[in-house]
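tool=predict chain=A
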Amino acid sequence: AHLHKRLLSSPAAFRVSIDNRLNAIRRQAALDLGDQAARDAADATTDQVFTEDDELDAAHLTARVDLPHNAELARLNTIKDLAAKVTAAKDPKLAELLRLLPERMDAHPKARRVLVFTKFKDTLDYLEKNLTRAVGKAKGLPDGTRVFTIYGDMNLAHRNATFAEFEAPEQAVLVATDCISEGVNLQRACAELIHYELPWNPNRIE
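tool=predict ok
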């Protein structure tokens, strides 16, 4: 389920998870052989791999599957090679977001600001990079659009300062993880909200 969620989020998030799982399998294989260095690495917390925004999915690192290590490694390496071919230019979900954002900005000419929610920090980084690149392009964002991000590793003061910056310009996009939903008045800043992933829990949709 973890890899499925990450795949549906973005190709970047999926690739990170594949790499993390490959590394975990290699560490486990070394542990089985009694490698002390690998034991030390395995004792490290998952905080080095996951942010607070997706730590609940960290269990996949140590999950056991009904495959020998070599078989799972071969399968994951095949998937990794296929995933590498899904570049941003070939990502239909990103293309749809770039098509939708100018349309939603135009719907609110007095406050052309849109908030985009994502579950994963890796997807946030992917969106920040590609939305910034798309500013002023024919199939991108209107010229002058500013792109901001807020995520769990930022302290409260930094989050509030970034949110204030987002409110200032005439047109802007803020990409944020769920951390921003706590104690921040989003309604005054923008009239448009886009969820980049459909929440798997129906209660979250409500």
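Residues 11-32 form the longest helix (22 residues). The mean pLDDT is 82.
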